[in-house]
Write a structure and sequence with these properties.
With 129 residues, this protein is mainly alpha-helical. The protein has 2 domains: 1-56, no CATH class; 63-123, no CATH class. The protein has 5 helices and 2 strands, in the order E-E-H-H-H-H-H. Strand 1 and strand 2 form a beta hairpin. The mean pLDDT is 84. This is ATP-dependent Clp protease ATP-binding subunit ClpX zinc ribbon domain-containing protein.
């Protein structure tokens, strides 16, 4: 089981990136960030005026309803990407023979709850220890 960046989107701007694109992605824990967003954040962190503006208000406070609605699919795509990453991570653990009990313990749920959430997607039918 290999976890890749292929088919991922930037969790910040929503642009597709990764292998086969002109937009490199880096990150972890499901969140991915593109080089452009890294550059933008770097510029903001080193410019007092930009930092002051960023601290003063959240961007959504000045967005129109249409802008908020247009952003919602990107938010959902990022959430779905994180959910898919969690499934890939559990698949990786299962290929390493990590038990459902251990996975459940790490998630703070029972073995059965972990299996019910992740086994159907991974195709892993084994509910053993």
């Amino acid at each position: 089981m290999t976890v890749t960046r292929e088919g991922r989107i930037c969790s910040f701007c929503g642009e597709p990136g990764g292998p086969g694109t002109d937009l490199p992605l880096v990150g972890g824990l499901g969140a991915q960030v593109c080089a452009r967003c890294v550059d933008d954040f770097h510029e903001m962190l080193h410019d007092e005026d930009l930092m002051a503006a960023a601290r003063s208000a959240f961007p959504w406070e000045s967005m129109t309803d249409a802008e908020l609605l247009a952003t919602l699919p990107m938010i959902m795509a990022s959430a779905e990407q994180n959910t898919a990453f969690a499934h890939e991570w559990v698949d990786l653990l299962r290929t390493r023979q990590v038990s459902w009990a251990e996975i459940g313990r790490a998630l703070g749920v029972s073995r059965q709850a972990a299996w019910e959430r992740f086994a159907r997607k991974s195709g892993d039918k084994g509910a053993t220890a």
